[in-house]
Amino acid sequence: MPARPARAEHGTADGARGAPRPERQTVTGTRPHPRTTPAAPTAPGAPAARGARIVALDVIRGVALCGIALVNIGPLTRFGTAAGFYEPAALDTVAGWLQLLVQQRFFPVFALLFGIGFALLLDSATRTTARPRLVLLRRLLLLLAIGIPFQFLQPGSALLPFAVVGLVVLLPSSWLPRAVVAVAAVVVTAAGIVGAGGGLALIPGMFLAGSALTRYGVVERVGRSRRGSMAVTLVAAALAVPLVLLQAAAIEASGFSVESAAAGLALAVAWAALVSWLVTTRAARPLTAAFAPLGRMALTNYVAAAPLMLAAGALLDFPHATSWTPVLATAVAVLVGQAIVSALWLRHCTQGPLEWLWRWGTWGRRGPLRRTRPTRRPADPA
């Protein structure tokens, strides 16, 4: 029995950490012009300084962006629709393995990272301005302004839901005690899995979870605690294995189901924790070089990927295609191209173009875009 066409998984994450530094009081009591020099990054494995960008989060975000692109390209380019091709989700098909290993496995990470970025931004804003939640409100309204027109280009994109849920759930939760936020994260996430089979319903719970993890100080240890990351990886993998097997047993009807959502969340945690562990090993340098630029420019790359994939799909006639090979190859090519362009861009600029505009609107003052000197370090602060 043919399975339902896979729904697209779309998302972006707020990577804000290095907020504009607070204005310094001079001896005479007057204030110089606001400084917009970003805080220094935290290298993988190094202690996280207050206000520093956590490079491991950029790596995790970059890896998640790759997984989401593999899921999105089929529905976005209407793969096989004109040819009447709907590959059944089975253990001997590409669609089946995408469901088991990719679909609903990376989108929760993006939502979690958005919640983390929101809490980090609140921390920075609290230290630099008298009205920190006004900064958060502007950031979400700007995302809303981006998400509305983007929804027409890529229906089902999570930019718009991210902005709406951020305004309705995440911003009000910033007034709540962290314990209440943590409990709410568990309850809302469970409701999203049981009641809706995951997907966009996971956004509120993941937002709250990211905020709670940040407020409890867990995020500061991401990419630093080798034992902690490995322990989380093993526990999440132990939970994921039986859940994935349960999903595989009924894979033809799994799709966006309770089994798929639960397995996806467990695998998402396992993926993120595994990457967090790897950046404490010798794999840190190649992982950072490959994925951190993608993650630092996640919003720019996510938005740019849609027209690139649509153009490739039209050129290669994906609606009449009956093979996954050119479709997945196109997604990989787009990601590789974006990784190269992102690394080159960040040698000369402080952050991606959309990230820079988003930051400008968030803080109400323009920061530097071009570096005074080109750099080869892809993990410099945003």
Can you walk me through this structure?
Residues 1-12 have a biased composition (Basic and acidic residues). It holds the Pfam family DUF418. This is DUF418 domain-containing protein. The protein is an all-alpha fold and 382 residues long. It has one domain (46-363). The protein is built from 13 helices and 2 strands; from the N terminus they run ββααααααααααααα. It has helices at 55-76, 94-101, 107-128, 132-153, 159-173, 178-196, 203-215, 226-249, 258-278, 284-296, 298-315, 324-348, 353-363, and strands at 41-42, 53-54. A two-stranded parallel sheet has the order 1-2. Residues 1-5, 21-40 and 377-382 have low confidence and may be disordered.
The total tally of domains equals 1
Give a short account of the largest sheet: 2 strands, parallel
Shape: globular
Helix content: 55-70%
Secondary-structure-based class equals mainly alpha
Report, as a whole number of angstroms, the end-to-end distance.
48 Å
- Mean pLDDT over the residues: 86
Radius of gyration: 20 Å
Strand order of the largest sheet: 1-2
- Our estimate of the beta-strand percent is under 5%
Order of helices and strands: EEHHHHHHHHHHHHH
Q: What is the count of β-strands?
A: 2
Flag low-confidence runs: 1-5, 21-40, 377-382
Per DSSP, the total helix count is 13
Strands, helices and their partners?
Layout: E1 41-42, E2 53-54, H1 55-76, H2 94-101, H3 107-128, H4 132-153, H5 159-173, H6 178-196, H7 203-215, H8 226-249, H9 258-278, H10 284-296, H11 298-315, H12 324-348, H13 353-363
Parallel strand pairs: 1-2
Helix pairs in contact: 1-3, 1-9, 1-10, 1-11, 1-12, 3-4, 3-7, 4-5, 4-13, 5-7, 6-7, 8-9, 10-12, 11-12
Protein name: DUF418 domain-containing protein
Biased composition (Low complexity): 28-46
Region (Disordered): 1-46
